[in-house]
Amino acid sequence: MDKLSAQQRHANMAAIRSKDTKPEMIVRRGLWKRGFRYRLNHKRLPGHPDLVLRKYRTCIFVNGCFWHGHHINLQFDDLQFTISNSGCCKIPKTNREFWVAKIRRNKERDKEEQRRLAEMGWHCITVWECELKPSKREETLESIAFTLNHIWLQDHGAKTNSYPKVEEEDMQMPMAAEETIINK
């Protein structure tokens, strides 16, 4: 049984934001401080990613552990989905069927949006709310920066050309620092 009235529950749910959340603001400030520039909630891309870094051809999704079912076990049994709790995501005991279906739909939608972005040539990074706790925050932000730099180097790095082999390279030539033995 729900402890709140229908009006109180409605007010609580209406107060939950989808943009400018605390985890999203942490990632935005951390990337800005590291010199990365981005756009917010790009309307033309599938899923309206939280951050879009065009230079890196990368979309970043900052997901809440509860709403997107982080580390939960989805199992399909007799035409019914079951979900088991994880350390950072606890499914409510009241109205459980509704929450299981909602989280399952969210996970499926996230997977489909990222697949569509990948088909369009975009890289996707998902940052979870639990990875932004103070004990892990700097490590997570450094990991994102490393990944973005790695993507940029892969896409824009120097091209190496292989040169044809010259016959002289096959011969054993003495090195300048080697002593030469003179036969008398």
Percentage of β-strand residues: 5-15%
> Which whole number gives the mean pLDDT?
82
Distance between the termini: 104 Å
| Helix and strand run | HHEEEHEEHEHH
Counted by DSSP, the helix tally is 6
- Number of E-type strands: 6
What this model shows, in words?
Helix content is 40%, strand content 15%. The protein starts with 5 loop residues before the first helix and ends in a 14-residue tail after the last helix. The longest helix has 24 residues, at 96-119. It has helices spanning 6-14, 22-33, 65-68, 96-119, 137-156, 167-170, and strands at residues 39-40, 51-53, 58-63, 73-77, 80-84, 123-128. With 184 residues, it is α+β, with helices and mostly antiparallel strands. The strands form 2 sheets. The protein has a 4-stranded mixed beta sheet with strand order 1-2-3-6, with helices on both faces. Strands 4-5 form a two-stranded antiparallel sheet.
Task: Give descriptors for this structure.
elongated, four-stranded mixed sheet, two-stranded antiparallel sheet, 6 helices, 184 residues
List the helices and strands and how they pair.
Blueprint: H1 6-14, H2 22-33, E1 39-40, E2 51-53, E3 58-63, H3 65-68, E4 73-77, E5 80-84, H4 96-119, E6 123-128, H5 137-156, H6 167-170
Parallel strand pairs: 3-6
Antiparallel strand pairs: 1-2, 2-3, 4-5
